[in-house]
Amino acid sequence: MDVVLGSKRVFAQYLALLLAAMAMISVMLFGFAPVTLFFRLSIDDYWFFLLLNIVILGFTGVVGVKFFFIDRCLIEFLKNHQKTSLVIVTN
Description:
Elements: H1 11-42, H2 46-90
């Protein structure tokens, strides 16, 4: 069953891309942990800390979705490029 209408990829490929994007988001959130800890220890303002967490989570989410989209486009490009190369070699 196609995940997206007209897609030639199987569900397992999209699942692998999704897990890779989630792993990237997790690593980025882990990287921002010292920044969050620093501001948590130095500033006692709840609203600033809430805004900081929203900005960090939003940034990592946008980067993760962009990573997913770029990798999906790269797979499509490589798949089409591979078919073109085979046609050129065989002709």
